Amino acid sequence: MQLRFIYVPVDDLPEAVAVHRDVLGLAESWREGDDTVAFALADSDVQIMVSTAPGASGPMYEVEDLDAWLNSHAAVVERGEVKDIPDGRMVELDGPDGNAFYVFDQPGRAATD
């Protein structure tokens, strides 16, 4: 399991992009459609992902196989259904004190590690 993203939901993507790029000085890594932009953090493999997609803010962890991970962590409470994402699937989970976290896999993506 590796921390890959910090998910930040926003209502206004252009405003969020401007803040992350112009105020915080982060470099844009990639975009997905008209609703998601990721920003690189210096000296880190972790990225900030801002999106108008629904969900709570929280860390996103990549695993090799989402189904296997969920089966071996049966006590973790899912907040919603497993959703398709580009090249994989993800699920929002209940963390400590009601905080969210996400687990995803992307077996269709070429490994970069």
From TrEMBL:
SUPFAM superfamilies: Glyoxalase/Bleomycin resistance protein/Dihydroxybiphenyl dioxygenase (SSF54593). Coiled coil: none annotated. Residues 2-106 form the VOC domain. Signal peptide: none annotated. InterPro entries: Glyas_Bleomycin-R_OHBP_Dase, VOC_core. This is VOC domain-containing protein.
